[in-house]
Design brief:
The chain is mainly alpha-helical and 211 residues long. It has helices at residues 6-17, 29-34, 57-68, 75-98, 104-114, 120-134, 151-163, 175-179, 181-191, 194-202, and strands spanning 45-48, 52-55. The longest helix is centred in the middle third of the chain and has 24 residues, at 75-98.
């Protein structure tokens, strides 16, 4: 899909930032399901020339992280990257669950409950905020696993941008900014990287905020 959703975007951006050539194939639903690349019937998928196909966000992120040197060599820090991406997946699943509700008012109410003080999404984002605290994240080093940028930081950057874009009815665009300062600081720091600006300029329709 031609979509800026974080699950695929963290891999695309890592490859772009590391100058690793790749074909950014964006298909409609029929094209994806007829491609034979969706092992689990879900997307995204990464086709590796001469090797095969990878599905599942974590597997793709880990593989691309290794290719781009954006994945820690230290086993513990590597696991912290996985932990962050798994946490983001849980957050995304909450939003996906709300899609089954066809009544717009009930859907918004469902999402509002998720982002309430004791809501499930708030609990999960508190967990991600804690990961940053555990890593000693600062303004100069806002990362989630170690002292340098990883594919997990790119995943957080894009997920926070998605949650803050205003496109998800029922989730205020200021939700993360007001409640999770370290997540927001990481998002802002990564967003200012020159290669990110170049990527966004290539895909401007993905990064417009809803007004």
């Amino acid at each position: 899909l031609d979509h800026h959703y974080w699950r695929a975007e963290c891999a695309r951006v890592a490859l772009f930032m590391a100058n690793v050539p790749f074909e950014d194939a964006r298909m409609d639903y029929n094209g994806m399901y007829s491609s034979g690349a969706l092992t689990f019937g879900t997307f995204p998928a990464l086709v590796v020339a001469g090797k095969g196909v990878l599905n599942q966000t974590q597997a793709i992120a880990r593989y691309v992280g290794h290719l781009t040197k954006m994945y820690p060599e230290d086993p513990f820090l590597a696991a912290k990257c996985d932990e962050a991406i798994d946490g983001l997946t849980d957050v995304s699943d909450l939003v996906t669950d709300t899609m089954q509700e066809r009544d717009p008012k009930r859907k918004i109410a469902w999402r509002q409950a998720l982002v309430s003080h004791d809501g499930r999404m708030t609990m999960l984002l508190n967990g991600l905020e804690t990961l940053l605290e555990q890593n000693g994240a600062t303004e100069m080093m806002p990362f989630v696993a170690g002292k340098s940028l990883t594919v997990a930081d790119l995943a957080i950057w894009r997920a926070v941008g998605w949650l803050s874009s205003g496109v998800i009815d029922g989730i205020p665009s200021t939700y993360v900014q007001q409640q999770f300062p370290k997540l927001w600081a990481l998002h802002c720091a990564v967003d200012q990287l020159p290669k990110l600006a170049e990527w966004k300029a290539k895909n401007p329709h993905h990064y417009a905020r809803k007004r």
